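Support reply, case 0932

Customer input (verbatim):
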Amino acid sequence: MEWKREVKILLWMIAVFVFAFLMPIESMRLKEAITAMFDLTRWYAREHVILCLLPAFFIAGVISVFVSQGAVIRYFGAKAKKWVAYSVASVSGTILAVCSCTILPLFSSIHKRGAGLGPAIAFLYSGPAINILAIILTARILGFEMGIARIVGAVVFAIVIGAVMSFIYRKEEKAKRDEQINFPDMHEKRPMWQTAFHFFTLVSILVFANWGRPGNDNAGGGWYWIWENKWYITSAFSVFLVFSLIFILKLKWQYVLLASAVTTISAFVSPSPLVPVLVGIAGVAILTLTDRRDPENKEWTLSSWDFAKQIMPLLALGVLVAGFLLGSTHDNTAISGIVPKEWIEQLVGGNSLFSNFFASIVGAFMYFATLTEVPILQGLIAAGMGKGPALALLLAGPSLSLPNMLVIRGIIGTQKTVVYVLLVVFMATITGVIYGLI
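Our regenerated output:
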């Protein structure tokens, strides 16, 4: 009724007025929380949008356009063997050094192409949870036992959560399987190895461009060498990308080499590696959008843009809210949010059911960039955090965050998102309790 709508508007106006009237702007905690909100947002924009998200959008575009629906169904859909689908999905994170937000466009693309809910969810969870860098850093800083517990827990979580989601929504999945059973085997436009080469070249650029320093006290070793030379390695894979653009996507070689030259010059004249990365991305976008030989090339960039439009606004909102509530912790910066950190440290001590549950909840809503969960946990453990809650946070934190939840809701709906989050929190809590008793 019309009067209900008017009453709702009136209530919203009253609520906004009361908030504005009572807003404690003189409170130092509120000021610090607002500072943390914008600090986290600025840091995320500087460290993750250009290097992480933009390449991830293009990788998602590859899956969406160049990988046929038949191929996705073959490995993740009704025609795939369950053990193959879940095995591939549950260990996929070992090659993707991504955070809970960077995995989203990849998840969205395979879900839209017909992947079953179970394998898609397993992929969504495992992507940020078990990347090889995070596992090694966990074992090195938090102990070998914690590293093993994390990788075993993450693989098991991915499979179990995916299988439970598939079982809960089995009627929907059955309808999807019935559609896919009669799905014709489509002829691939190009050999699968060519698509795989293009895909893994982009993945390699994403991984090495974001390779983190193994540790401040580690001045040697293979991982440190990779970090020290990561831009040279990234440049080498960029040469492979040039090869792919010319010989696989069949773009005009003159234009590709011109874009490569501009990108190379920008790398020498710019003090920041972000500039050549951005120039390279812009070059790929312009080359594909203006290509008239193959409409798929243009569709690749347009599909990547669709993912960006869908995900970026929700991601920005989520990062703002996460920073305001839980603060901004990165590099050598630690700014408290509106929720006092002392409360968190007091609530996750010991190994009670509540402390594990609380650690899982905090981990689920707090944003962790790739690898940042380890030093944060190191500080919490030093402040008295139990080993059970520590593992619970490790298993819930990297794969979930408030920004992540908002985007997942837009992809699979509110109900499925709530079920997924509850499953992660429940399993992390129980696993933390068991681990704390060992």
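We compared this against your earlier run and they match. Two observations from our side: DSSP finds 21 helices and two strands in the chain. Residues 28-65 form the longest helix (38 residues). Please reopen the case if you see a mismatch on your end.
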